[in-house]
Task: inverse folding
């Protein structure tokens, strides 16, 4: 009898202690989260909310904002001649550079990861060099320069493929392709390195278990073991690619000028830069940003579902 | 009975694991295309950096030669030796720009990695309220156009009296969403929940579990994140928020040289090469430790 009462007393004490402990633990969690959360709300959440609010206003950054309801959105879809052009260019860039960039970053990481440490570091350096070198995409402009001083023109003339220099960056039929080439070059780095780290952190026991379970070749291994165990890192890479592919702007501005000839390489983000930075129509720029965000968010949700399906 | 059969089999596989890349062999043709593909992609990636380095050693007449030549015939270091005189007209000594760049890059990188890792740990391994919502906001915030945020951000900076101080470089970059996102994804994938549970039963405090158990496991992730953040900060040039010359960073000093036209092209390339050096050093250091952790750790 005494024994049991002692027992329940002990159990009660443990329970009380664990409750107290839990509260203490939760406090630690909140303290660990606080520095990020506070700064994140100040420098990201608050600006995003005010930008969304601003999209319903007419605001030139000088006089007081004037509420105009959905006018900015109506104007974008019904009146603006450049918006459809910017939208279609953006979609072309996104549909091509997004998936190609993602697959290149993943496949290269997968291939490079099979080498020994030294070769791996050298190869990784090659693929990460565009990011390490800073913003040197002006080099592509020298290579594709439109006069006969351009390296590509000079090379093609000396081989005899063309007789006159080609205006690579001014001719719309080439400009889009060249921007895709440069954008892919620029965007490879981050996803590639994240994938490499992901592959190197993968649990070797999974591969051993896979070999026992009858994995037959490298493609099986990739599909049934590597991809499922890396889903969260793949999702990171997907989001970074969406961010890059829908926001193409620095490369066309540097290579094709701002604005480009006949708006041939105008994208939504170069349009935002123009509307907000040159014309100071902040409300309209915010409205375009909101539409771009919705487009990207939907793409992310869709691709998230696809990533979930992989490896099944 | 079965267990005794299984054991030697597993041992054999463990030795095979040591040279994992030889486990499944490719055909000769497969090998050829594999190497060719890596070679072409490597060339495509390194070409601009390679061109910049080569051009920085070209004398003026080779820069203007027609038809243009890719390689240098008579390399010279004059593009580098001319740099100090080009920087003479700056009102602040070059060392100040270098200090500013290193200072803001290193401080921001360290703070960002620690703050992001702590937040990622809480979002990945605990059951606090709203963690799903917070993480969704973090992910989606990556998709909002940064350019549009400049005006509201400017108002916040001026409200907090941050304009024209070092804080402009540091504070807004600490909560960058990418860091939390990257660290959480790695913790989700590579830190098993039983590991956290075991540490708690052994009496390790939350902070200790985070610092001594979780962080070593995701070392490749935070080393890579440090690299991303350092490289990003190294080239950062705030617009309209820094006015004092002695608060400006190296990219600003570099841009004054590059703005000199065609005859300065060699010097511009030399500046670009010098600017590459710190990120390359950080890359080599971080990736070497990634490799070392992987080969030495027995935790996996």
Result:
């Amino acid at each position: 009898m005494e024994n049991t009462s002692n027992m329940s007393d002990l159990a009660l004490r443990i329970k009380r202690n664990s409750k107290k402990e839990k509260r203490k633990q939760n406090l630690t969690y909140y303290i660990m989260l606080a520095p990020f959360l506070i700064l994140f709300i100040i420098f990201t959440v608050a600006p995003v909310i005010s930008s969304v609010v601003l999209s319903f206003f007419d605001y030139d950054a000088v006089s007081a904002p004037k509420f105009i309801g959905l006018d900015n959105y109506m104007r974008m879809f019904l009146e603006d001649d450049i918006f459809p052009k910017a939208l279609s260019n953006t979609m072309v860039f996104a549909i091509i550079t997004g998936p190609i960039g993602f697959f290149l970053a993943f496949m290269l990481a997968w291939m490079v990861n099979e080498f020994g440490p030294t070769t791996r570091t050298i190869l990784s350096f090659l693929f990460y060099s565009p990011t390490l070198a800073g913003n040197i995409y002006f080099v592509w402009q020298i290579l594709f320069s439109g006069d006969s001083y351009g390296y590509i023109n000079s090379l093609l003339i000396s081989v005899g493929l063309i007789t006159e220099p080609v205006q690579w960056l001014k001719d719309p039929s080439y400009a889009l392709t060249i921007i895709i080439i440069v954008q892919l070059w620029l965007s490879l780095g981050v996803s590639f390195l994240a994938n490499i780290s992901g592959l190197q952190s993968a649990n070797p026991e999974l591969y051993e278990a896979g070999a026992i379970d009858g994995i037959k070749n490298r493609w099986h291994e990739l599909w049934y073991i590597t991809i499922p165990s890396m889903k969260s890192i793949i999702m990171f890479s997907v989001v970074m690619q969406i961010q890059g592919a829908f926001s193409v702007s620095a490369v066309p501005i540097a290579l094709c000028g701002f604005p480009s000839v006949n708006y041939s390489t105008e994208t939504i983000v170069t349009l935002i830069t123009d509307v907000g930075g040159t014309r100071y129509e902040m409300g309209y720029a915010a409205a375009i940003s909101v539409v771009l965000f919705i487009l990207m968010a939907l793409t992310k949700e869709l691709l998230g579902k696809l990533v979930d399906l992989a490896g099944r | 009975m079965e267990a005794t059969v299984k054991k030697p089999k597993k041992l054999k596989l463990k030795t095979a694991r040591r040279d994992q890349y030889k486990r499944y062999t490719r055909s000769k043709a497969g090998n050829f295309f594999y190497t060719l593909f890596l070679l072409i992609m490597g060339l495509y990636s390194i070409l601009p950096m390679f061109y910049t380095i080569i051009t920085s050693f070209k004398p003026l007449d080779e820069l203007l030669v027609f038809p243009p030549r890719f390689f240098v015939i008579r390399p010279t270091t004059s593009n580098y030796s001319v740099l100090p005189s080009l920087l003479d007209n700056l009102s602040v000594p070059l060392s100040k720009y270098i200090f500013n760049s290193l200072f803001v890059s290193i401080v921001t990188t360290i703070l960002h990695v620690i703050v992001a890792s702590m937040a990622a740990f809480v979002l990945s391994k605990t059951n606090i309220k709203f963690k799903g919502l917070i993480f969704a906001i973090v992910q989606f915030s990556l998709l909002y156009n940064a350019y549009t945020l400049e005006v509201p951000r400017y108002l916040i900076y001026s409200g907090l009296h941050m304009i024209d101080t070092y804080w402009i470089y540091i504070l807004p970059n600490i909560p960058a969403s990418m860091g939390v996102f990257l660290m959480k994804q790695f913790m989700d994938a590579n830190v098993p929940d039983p590991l956290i549970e075991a540490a708690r039963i052994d009496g390790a405090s939350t902070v200790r579990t985070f610092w001594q158990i979780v962080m070593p496991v995701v070392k490749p992730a935070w080393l890579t994140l440090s690299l991303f953040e350092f490289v990003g900060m190294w080239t950062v040039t705030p617009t309209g928020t820094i006015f004092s010359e002695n608060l400006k960073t190296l990219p600003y000093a570099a841009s004054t040289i590059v703005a000199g036209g065609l005859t300065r092209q060699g010097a511009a390339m030399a500046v670009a090469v010098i600017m590459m050096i710190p990120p390359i050093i950080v890359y080599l250091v971080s990736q070497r430790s990634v490799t070392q952790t992987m080969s030495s750790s027995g935790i996996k």
